[in-house]
Specification:
heterodimer; A: alpha/beta; five-stranded parallel beta sheet; two-stranded antiparallel sheet; 7 helices; 7 strands; B: alpha/beta; six-stranded mixed beta sheet; two-stranded antiparallel ribbon; 8 strands; 22% strand
């Protein structure tokens, strides 16, 4: 009897500690907000780079975007802001290629594309060239849209890269220019 | 339940959690796949205007690295590759860099700045797709002396991992 009691005690404590630790990690829920369950501890901050210029509320998870696009309820304008060679290999169906958000050409094309749009247009930008914390394109593209006054911009939070977090997950892709 | 017993249970629980966390951390390391397939051959012009054909390196152990100047993890790997080329080159090792930059200009500047000692060419989507697609950088392939892909590394990889792979292959006849 004591053995069982000890066993259940260990299991209970393991689950309790696991839940506590899991609660420290940010979880993208419903694609709208990066909701941190439980305490907003150090690990939650570490998950997104501290110099991150994109508010958490503006992030959308790949699976949520895939669901939204599949359902057809929301039809945001999806803009790819990464390198051309990646877009040609695989991109989100319907996404338009702006070129690298870190380049002058990419910035210019982005400005040109959105200049006639209402400021509350639903716009989704994504890249996925590198792990999130190293992507040179997302922040410049996001800042540009922000500075132009767009209020409904979402950035796809691609933690690793587009291949890993979108293509390999089986979400739909298109190829070519 | 005594407080002593609670502490012991807590320690056991933390140990179990530690094992779980270690497993997760391992799973998050750069992905490696083994292939054994013959590496697709290609011919490109490198940034110095020379013809670069992968199969010309048959008989050597090759590290084929897809990278870009705007990719921070890629940039961090380059000095190590320069060292590896210097260290293992005389034993029959060759690094080939394929930049996925849209423009050759920054690649040339980077090449000079980092004193790269191996051929670099600018690749395109077709070349990337022939290697299964490069949808995120860096991606590296270790190719044996027979031209077969031994391993594929997705994401930044510890230099010690490359070092071991290359040293092992070079030690084989």
């Amino acid at each position: 009897m004591t053995i069982y009691r000890n066993f259940f005690a260990v299991v209970f404590l393991t689950v309790a500690v696991s839940l506590f630790v899991a609660a420290q990690e940010p979880v993208l829920v419903d694609g709208q907000n990066l909701i941190v369950l439980g305490f907003q501890g150090a690990s939650a901050k570490d998950a997104i780079p501290s110099d991150d210029a994109i508010p958490r509320a503006q992030l959308i998870a790949p699976d949520k975007l895939a669901q939204e696009l599949k359902s057809g309820k929301h039809k945001p304008l999806v803009l790819f802001v990464g390198p051309n060679s990646m877009y040609t290999q695989a991109h989100i169906p319907g996404a338009e290629n702006m070129g690298a958000g870190s380049s002058d050409a990419g910035q210019e094309k982005l400005r040109e594309r959105v200049k006639s749009l209402p400021k509350n247009s639903a716009i989704v930008i994504y890249c996925g060239c590198c792990p999130w914390g190293h992507c040179p394109n997302m922040h410049p593209a996001f800042k540009t849209l922000q500075s132009l006054g767009f209020t409904n911009v979402k950035a796809v939070y691609i933690a690793n890269d587009f291949g890993t977090d979108w293509v390999n997950k089986g979400y739909p892709i298109a190829k070519g220019q | 339940m005594s407080s002593k017993r609670i502490i012991i249970y807590g320690i056991v629980a933390l140990c179990l959690l530690g094992i779980y966390a270690a497993g997760r951390r391992t799973a998050q390391k750069p992905k490696t796949t083994t292939s054994g397939n013959l590496a697709p051959d290609f011919t490109v012009t490198d940034i110095n205007g020379k013809k670069l054909t992968l199969s010309d390196y048959r008989g050597k152990v090759v590290l084929l690295n897809f990278w870009a100047t705007w990719c921070a993890p890629c940039r961090a790997e380059i000095p190590h590759f320069v060292e590896m080329q210097q260290k293992y080159g005389p034993q029959g090792f060759q690094i080939v860099g394929i930049s996925m930059d849209d423009d050759v200009k920054p690649v040339k500047a980077f090449y000079q700045e980092y004193k790269m000692n191996y051929p670099v060419a600018v690749g395109d989507d077709k070349l990337a797709e022939s290697f299964g697609g490069v949808l995120g950088l860096p991606v590296s392939f270790i190719i044996d002396r027979d031209g077969r892909i031994v391993k594929k590394f997705i994401g930044a990889t510890e230099v010690s991992v490359f070092d071991k792979e290359v040293a092992d292959l070079l030690s084989k006849p």
